[in-house]
Write a structure and sequence with these properties.
homodimer, about 160 residues, five-stranded mixed beta sheet, 5 strands
């Protein structure tokens, strides 16, 4: 079972692929397959960014062949402008997953934090350390968006106890 | 010069195509070519809606061969949840336009109202009546989302004085 986690954004969109062996969901049972970001230089027109996300997402899925997708759900109270641009990227990401007939699961940032660390107000550093432990990695994956995407993928594995 | 106007939304997405002859932008000089909506039943999963918008947008562009696209810009202060879903649809619409190498122009609802009627707080009825007059139509195009999309297309023609 391969899970593709996504941390959506128009300027920088994180992705992370993990693999679960059998039904073992103990820490360290998941293996990191791939992670990274789809990013475009500052001031790149929105249309170009969305096209880049579309093409890159197809490549990532063709390369890693995930079985399901876990994506951060939009849940915001503060920065509406950022929220709009994240939603535009999310629309394209969800489209590509549908074109590959991949089931899509959505988790709010709080659900991800709570599932990963045990409480909903964990900070970025604690989250990243849990990603490292879960996947038995020597170092925390960089940049943050790639680690966040892996956290989304791990959350799906823990929430569903494969 | 053909302009495709879009009123984005995930549940219902309006479109309208107008044609301008020469450089004449007097009222009635623009001709209505096509209009309608891309709509899905209530409770259709978001991924299906976005895929439907993607496929339908390609069909609409292939059929009508517009030269430019005019799309309503997101500008909201009240309903954030609606705003997110509109942005997800916008992401897919802008992607498809980019795949056809169409220039994309964005106008806020206020810019559209002001350009169409002369003031930014015009109501829906006044706007629709102006769409009807501009395009020399006997009746106001239905549903509202199709009329709104035509208003976006007309706004681009008036703002740019082709």
């Amino acid at each position: 079972m391969r899970i593709l986690g996504i941390d959506p954004g128009t300027g920088i969109c994180g992705f992370g692929v993990i693999e679960l062996k059998g039904s073992d969901t103990l820490r360290g049972a998941a293996k990191m397959i791939d992670n990274g970001v789809i990013s475009t230089p500052p001031n790149t027109p929105l249309a170009e960014r969305l096209e880049d996300i579309y093409n890159s997402m197809h490549e990532i899925i063709n390369l890693n062949k995930p079985d399901v997708v876990s994506i951060e759900k939009l849940f915001f109270t503060k920065n509406i402008t950022t929220g709009i641009s994240v939603a535009e990227a999310r629309g394209v990401v969800i489209l590509v997953c549908k074109q590959h007939n991949l089931p899509i699961f959505e988790y709010t940032p709080n659900e991800i934090k709570k599932t990963m660390t045990g409480y909903g107000s964990a900070d970025k550093k604690q989250m990243q350390e849990m990603v490292r432990l879960h996947l038995n990695l020597k170092e925390i994956p960089k940049p943050d968006d790639a680690a966040d995407a892996l956290a989304a993928a791990i959350t799906h594995s823990l929430m569903n106890r494969f």
